[in-house]
Amino acid sequence: MPENIVIALDAMGGDDAPDIVIKGIDIVRVQFPKARFLLFGDEARLEPLLKAYPGVRDACELRHTDEAVKSEDKPSQALRKGRKSSMRLAIDSVRSGEAGAIVSAGNTGALMAMAKVSLRMMAGIDRPAIASVLPSPRGETVMLDLGANVECDADNLVQFAFMGAEFARAVLGRVPPRVALLNVGIEELKGNDTIKEAGERLKSIEHPPFEYQGFVEGDDITRGVVDVIVTDGFTGNVALKTAEGVVRLFTDFLRAGFKSSIFAKIGYVFSRGGLNILKERLDPRMYNGGVLLGLNGLCVKSHGGTDEMGFANAIGVAIEMVSDDMIDKMRNNFETFDMAAKMSNNAVTPDEDAEEQQSAASASRPIKNTNKASSTVEDAG
What we know:
- This protein starts with 5 loop residues before the first strand and ends in a 17-residue tail after the last helix.
- An eleven-stranded mixed sheet has the order 3-2-1-4-11-10-5-6-9-7-8, with helices on both faces.
- It has helices spanning 19-31, 43-52, 54-59, 75-81, 86-95, 108-119, 154-172, 193-204, 233-258, 262-282, 308-323, 326-346, 354-364; strands at residues 6-10, 36-41, 60-64, 101-104, 129-136, 139-144, 178-182, 211-216, 228-230, 290-293, 298-301.
- It is α/β, with parallel strands linked by helices.
- Helix 7 crosses helix 8.
């Protein structure tokens, strides 16, 4: 790990802040002892905690502010009134280059709005996307978008594929990442026009920094058949919340089953080791940390209701991305992609008939900006 990694933390964001922030640092510094932190928040509340964790104090620089974004604040309110809030100051430290990434468990809508205004969009990307990892039998799978954009066009989905692939390479070490589009079937004829156009464009790109695998269905999300699953924010958010609900349902059924009889309770004693492994694999804290991709800076959103272990994992995601220099690598990939897209627009084989030429050009041509408003989900969880 590089010597100079600095992470900005919104110490006042989250249901149990600032306690989880300080305790989360104490956990994560065991794995990343060289990391340093800029801590933005109320000094009166943070100082007693720092005194209780002297090791954390040594790794942190405290930046005082008594303003914080509330969970009920709308993004527009946060933008107008929150310029001196702990969240905004932490984001601005990434823009200024003081920190390599910002981590917050605060208001999701406010974090997205502030990050877009302060960090700006990366060249070649129209909209940011929320990415996170989900468990599977073969390891973790990256999925995006999980709620930043309710409506997406083919251009957005292609961009998400590049961003998700770079995230999977940086955080999960997948080289090259296998990327697929979430659809209602794996056949090329299935899906709406947006999905099919995105698929054709991804297939037409020469030498992409990933392996495009075509379409996958909903039951493939947890099978680990690919490394990155790309979809729009509406579908992704519904899929994420459905998966969380299924895990809770499974846990409730399992708990009820082991309490159903004396023999079931005895069975629990003998199977406790295996159940602990299962519990750890399904623990949402181990997968905490949704990343807002597509900005000129790294922004990690922790779940607002997480504990110190979950927040520590979110910090770990940020450190891994900064260590990998993910932003610069993503920029380079998009520069290469833009060149490849232009080449594919001009590449037409002589033996294609007129209809096939028109179809191929339509599939590879970048979509013009229609200036339609971006739909967002203010809290993707």
